[in-house]
Each structure stands twice: as structure tokens, then as C-alpha cells.
């Protein structure tokens, strides 16, 4: 062990820091490969999630766009003018021309309001052709009825048909890429039939797809239910077979993400399908997601090996050296937990363990002194509480009560004399009796009943009273003689000064935060200024000196805690309510 002495640290903080650093580095090296693999998977998963969100956005935008166009076609069919145009036997008659011009104006108003509509065209089975174009040279009606959009709409029998991207063949000398939405009007073979077609400019869909960026090489393309391309950024290369996509595999795949290899490249296809059967497909290249994979792996291995060599050289002896003094201190603490406060730790070092040992010795001595102080304070508290309870019976109250008894005896009211004398005896017995400081609420109510009996006889026709306490809380404990000062305050300051007969109610209920005993009077009450003055007196009182409400509040908080005590609510000419809150102790 002498060979290790030069490596002893004066600071335990340094020792612990080095030990934990060594362990962390060692574990980091062991987990380097797994961490790298998880990082690669996490980056790929995040990229896939992001790609899915982008493809969902494109799919939603295209779905919304097509829904708007379908609504446009439904709006064009809803007026009834197209059915009339399809019933005209001679479209070139003055009536037919006038009707077609009216419908053409309506079509033109729609096209002018939307930049994404190439044209609106209606072809009736009667050979009548109506378009948004003025003086347009249509291809023959027979030629128009032979085109795919017309035949597919007739086969769908009233359902909306959306074509793939194709070159428009409606007007002579005009050819552009569009997507056609067509819908049948009427029934095949019956008068009034035909097909309404709305051509959408393909560049709108192109713009929606080109806005999405999926890395340097990623892209978005769209397939219709038959596997025909609606949009692809390299559409010409596909048509010339210089590039290929696994279209058949993608058509048979539900909405998900799959990985395929095409032309020597791994690709991840993220597929979403809209209500019209179009598949919006996002293509990403996994190799782009973690481009510096080899560099990360090499750097992690080199750093891990370097730290592992350092960790193995210093971690062996540190663990034993660090744990030995801590375990010795732990064993002494267990003895203290069992009540042995005469123990002392021998201080052998100047590091943090030595400082902790000295603090431990000081703490044990302080705890022992505090325990003695607590015992002494509890005894003083018991004595002061007894004196406070005995002080509640004021000499003036006793004098006035005895004077009232003498007066009633002289008047021959012997029943009142007996009743008042008995109540006074019981009141004195409960006030000066020794025993536990806590008594059941039922005993406290008997005391206040005796007090109210005496006061009601003394102040005849001055007040009435009732006691309404929940029977469930009668067995709960309270301090002795806490209700008498509240009732006394209600009589002397609330009811004595008014000319009418007052009333005092003593109630008790269980509430969420404990038990609430209330003394309620309908006397003169107090205004806001008087309440604030009373609160200020309580705040600046020294240790709860004095008697009355202030003393009761101090006793309650001293015994049960600061969250309990008295609360006063009062309104002038309405009365006062004093609430005494106690914990529920059985």
C-alpha cells in the first residue's frame, strides 16, 4: 500500500470525479458500437417520419385540389341548362345557339376565376358541344365521344372519373398536358345525355410536388389506379426506358414505407393513397441519411480505446479507497438511528470525509442538546397552557355571577339559583381540572353549555342560543376552553350593546382541511377598518400574551401548527362569525 501513497487525493470530490469518469468512459467504450447503430437507426427513422409528413402534406393538398375541381363540375351540372342543351334536336338553330352561348358564358366565368382550369367542355349525345371558348374550332363530336375521358365517364354511370396526365385533344391546333375530370349527365341511350369534362392544368400538380425537398436526390411522383404516371420529375426518362420504377410492386403495396433496390441504388418508398385511388409516393435514398457513417464509426472506436486504457489504469484501486471510510461512517449512523447519541467519529483525514466526520460529531451533540431543550419546552408549554386556561375565569365574571345568585335568592327564584350555581360549579371544575390538554369536543361543548346557561340567566331576555355540532366529530380532540372566549366575545361585544334580543349559534362540522367550530352572533358586527385593526394587534402580539381571542389563536397555532387557528368574518349590523379550525384527531 506504500507504493500507492503518492496517488492519494486530499479532496474526496477529486477522487469521486476520477472514479466516475473512468467508469463512464469504460461503459461508453463498451457501448460505442451499439450507440452508433442506434444513432443510425434513429436518424433513419426521423428522416422517414419527416418524409411521411411531407408526403401526407402533398397527398392532402392534391386531395383538396381535386375535391375543389369535383365541386366545380358538380356546380356546372346543377343548373339544368346542360340537360336542356342535350335535348335540343338542332344545336345549330337559333334557340340552340342562344342556349349554348348562355352556358358558354357561365363556363367562362368559372375558368376566369381559376388559373388552374385549362377548359370546361360539355359533349351531348345529340352532337351538341359547349365550351368556355368563344369561336373555338372543336374536333368533330364523334371524335370527342371516342376519347377515353368520354367513354370512361359513360361507363362510370354518373360517378366522377379522373384521368391520368395526358395531352389534350379537344381543339384544333392545341395540345397541352392536362388531367381530366369527367362526369356523365343523364342515362346512356336516353335523350338529355352527355358528359361534362373539366381539364386541369398539369403544371399545378407539378408545382405541388416540386416544392417538396427530400434530400439531394429524393423526389415525389404520382400514379393513378391503373399504374399510369400522373407526375414524375423524370417522366421523359421513364418513357424512354432510361430509368425505371417498381410500379407494379408499388401498386400492390398499402400505405406504408418499403425499401427496394433499383438500378443499384437502395430507395425507400413512402406511399400514401387518396380517395380517388392516386398514389402519392415519396422516394428517399438511405445512404444520404447517414453520409458520414464510416467516419463516425472510426472516430468512436479510436476515442473509446484511448479512454479505456486510461480508465483501466486507475479505476482498480480507487473503488476500495473511496468506499472504506464511507462504510465506517455508515455503520456509526446506524447505531445513532437506534438511539445511541454518545458516539463520536475519529477524524483521521483532512479531506471531505474528515470534514463530514467533524460535522457528524457536531450534529450528534446538537441533537442531544435539542432533545433536552424540547423536553424542557414541552413542560413549560404544559404549565403555560394550564395557566392560560385558569386565567379564562375572570374575577369580574365570578363576582357578577355570585352577585346575580344573591339577587335571585333575595327574589325567591330558587330554581334559577340552583341552576346557575350548578352550572358555575361545573364550569369551575372543568376549568381547573388537571389531566390531558386535549379533551373530546363533547367535553368542551358541556363546558360552553354551562357557560351559556350562566350568561343567559344573568342577561335574561338579552339573547338566545343553540348548539348544533355534527355527532361524528364529538369524539375528536380539541384544546381545553377554546370556545368560552369566543362566546364571551360574542356576548360582550356583539349582543350586549344592541336593544333587541340577539342569538348565538355554536356549530361544528368536518371539512376538507379538518374540523371547523364556529360561534355565530347576529350582533352589531365590525367594519373592515375594525377587522384590520384586530388583525394588526394579533400580528404584533408578543407570544400570545393576554386572554380572549388572541390567546386562543396563539394556543391553537402553538399546539397544532400555523395552518390552524381563528378566522373572523363580520359585517356591520349583520353580526360576526368566528371560525376555529382544528385538525381531525380521534
Written overview of the protein:
- There is one protein chain.
- With 586 residues, the chain is of the alpha+beta class.
- 52% of the residues lie in helices and 18% in strands.
- It has helices at 12-30, 32-77, 81-87, 94-113, 141-145, 148-156, 202-210, 235-239, 247-251, 286-289, 293-337, 352-390, 395-410, 414-432, 441-458, 484-495, 528-539, 549-560; strands at residues 117-124, 129-131, 161-162, 166-167, 177-185, 194-201, 219-223, 229-231, 257-262, 265-273, 279-284, 438-440, 463-469, 477-479, 502-511, 514-521, 565-571, 575-582.
- Helix 1 crosses helix 11 (293-337), helix 2 crosses helix 11 (293-337) and helix 3 (81-87) runs antiparallel to helix 4 (94-113).
- The chain starts with 11 loop residues before the first helix and ends with a strand.
Largest sheet: 6 strands, antiparallel
Proportion of residues in β-strands: 15-25%
Question: How would you classify the helix and strand content by structural class?
Answer: alpha+beta
State Rg: 49 Å
Distance between the termini: 63 Å
Helix content: 40-55%
Shape: elongated
Mean of residue pLDDT values? 77
What's the helix and strand layout?
Elements: H1 12-30, H2 32-77, H3 81-87, H4 94-113, E1 117-124, E2 129-131, H5 141-145, H6 148-156, E3 161-162, E4 166-167, E5 177-185, E6 194-201, H7 202-210, E7 219-223, E8 229-231, H8 235-239, H9 247-251, E9 257-262, E10 265-273, E11 279-284, H10 286-289, H11 293-337, H12 352-390, H13 395-410, H14 414-432, E12 438-440, H15 441-458, E13 463-469, E14 477-479, H16 484-495, E15 502-511, E16 514-521, H17 528-539, H18 549-560, E17 565-571, E18 575-582
Parallel strand pairs: 13-15
Antiparallel strand pairs: 1-2, 1-6, 3-5, 4-5, 5-6, 7-8, 7-11, 9-10, 10-11, 12-14, 15-16, 16-18, 17-18
Helix pairs in contact: 1-11, 2-11, 3-4, 13-14, 14-15
Amino acid at each position: 500500500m506504500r507504493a500507492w501513497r503518492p496517488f492519494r487525493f486530499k479532496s474526496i470530490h477529486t477522487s469521486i470525479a476520477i472514479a466516475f469518469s473512468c467508469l463512464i468512459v469504460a461503459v461508453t467504450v463498451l457501448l460505442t458500437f451499439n450507440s452508433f447503430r442506434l444513432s443510425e437507426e434513429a436518424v433513419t427513422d426521423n428522416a422517414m417520419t419527416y418524409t411521411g409528413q411531407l408526403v401526407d402534406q402533398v397527398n392532402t393538398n392534391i386531395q383538396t385540389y381535386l375535391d375543389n375541381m369535383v365541386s366545380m363540375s358538380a356546380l356546372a351540372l346543377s343548373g339544368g341548362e346542360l340537360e336542356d342543351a342535350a335535348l335540343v334536336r338542332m344545336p345549330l338553330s337559333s334557340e340552340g345557339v342562344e342556349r349554348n352561348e348562355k352556358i358558354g358564358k357561365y363556363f367562362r366565368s368559372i375558368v376566369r376565376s381559376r388559373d388552374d382550369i385549362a377548359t370546361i367542355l360539355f359533349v351531348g349525345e345529340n352532337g351538341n358541344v359547349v365550351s368556355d371558348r368563344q369561336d373555338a374550332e372543336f374536333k368533330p363530336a364523334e371524335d370527342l365521344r371516342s376519347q377515353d375521358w368520354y367513354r370512361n365517364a359513360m361507363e362510370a354511370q354518373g360517378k366522377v372519373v379522373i384521368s391520368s396526365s395526358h395531352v389534350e385533344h379537344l381543339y384544333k391546333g392545341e395540345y397541352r398536358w392536362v388531367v381530366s375530370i369527367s362526369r356523365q349527365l343523364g342515362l346512356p341511350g336516353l335523350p338529355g345525355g352527355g358528359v361534362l369534362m373539366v381539364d386541369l392544368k398539369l403544371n399545378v400538380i407539378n408545382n405541388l410536388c416540386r416544392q417538396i425537398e427530400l434530400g439531394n436526390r429524393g423526389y415525389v411522383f404520382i400514379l393513378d389506379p391503373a399504374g399510369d404516371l400522373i407526375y414524375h420529375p423524370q417522366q421523359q426518362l421513364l418513357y424512354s426506358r432510361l430509368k425505371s420504377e417498381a410500379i407494379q410492386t408499388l401498386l400492390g403495396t398499402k400505405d406504408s414505407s418499403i425499401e427496394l433496390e433499383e438500378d443499384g441504388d437502395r430507395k425507400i418508398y413512402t406511399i400514401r393513397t387518396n380517395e380517388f385511388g392516386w398514389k402519392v409516393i415519396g422516394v428517399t435514398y438511405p445512404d444520404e441519411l447517414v453520409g458520414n457513417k464510416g467516419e463516425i464509426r472510426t472516430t468512436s472506436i479510436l476515442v473509446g480505446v484511448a479512454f479505456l486504457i486510461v480508465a483501466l489504469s486507475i479505476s482498480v484501486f480507487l473503488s476500495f479507497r473511496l468506499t472504506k471510510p464511507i462504510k465506517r461512517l455508515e455503520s456509526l449512523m446506524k447505531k445513532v438511528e437506534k438511539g445511541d447519541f454518545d458516539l463520536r467519529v475519529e477524524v483521521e483525514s483532512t479531506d471531505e470525509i474528515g470534514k463530514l466526520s467533524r460535522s457528524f460529531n457536531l450534529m450528534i451533540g446538537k441533537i442531544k442538546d435539542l432533545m433536552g431543550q424540547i423536553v424542557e419546552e414541552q413542560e413549560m408549554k404544559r404549565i403555560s397552557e394550564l395557566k392560560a386556561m385558569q386565567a379564562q375565569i375572570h374575577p369580574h365574571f365570578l363576582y357578577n355571577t355570585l352577585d346575580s345568585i344573591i339577587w335571585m335568592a333575595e327574589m325567591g327564584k330558587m330554581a334559577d339559583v340552583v341552576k346557575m350555581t350548578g352550572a358555575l360549579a361545573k364550569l369551575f371544575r372543568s376549568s381547573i381540572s388537571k389531566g390531558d390538554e386535549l379533551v373530546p369536543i363533547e367535553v368542551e361543548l358541556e363546558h360552553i353549555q354551562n357557560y351559556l346557561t350562566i350568561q343567559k340567566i344573568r342577561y335574561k331576555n338579552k339573547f338566545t342560543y343553540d348548539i348544533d355540532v355534527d355527532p361524528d366529530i364529538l369524539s375528536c380532540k380539541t384544546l381545553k376552553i377554546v370556545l368560552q372566549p369566543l362566546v364571551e366575545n360574542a356576548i360582550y361585544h356583539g349582543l350586549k350593546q344592541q336593544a333587541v334580543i340577539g342569538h348565538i349559534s355554536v356549530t361544528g362540522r368536518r371539512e376538507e382541511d379538518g374540523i371547523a367550530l364556529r360561534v355565530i352572533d347576529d350582533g352589531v358586527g365590525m367594519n373592515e377598518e375594525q377587522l384590520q385593526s384586530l388583525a394588526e394587534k394579533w400580528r404584533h402580539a408578543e407570544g400570545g400574551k393576554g386572554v380572549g381571542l388572541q390567546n386562543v389563536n396563539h394556543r391553537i397555532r402553538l399546539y397544532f401548527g400555523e395552518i390552524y387557528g381563528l378566522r373572523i368574518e363580520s359585517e356591520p349590523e349583520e353580526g360576526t362569525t368566528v371560525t376555529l379550525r382544528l385538525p381531525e384527531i380521534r
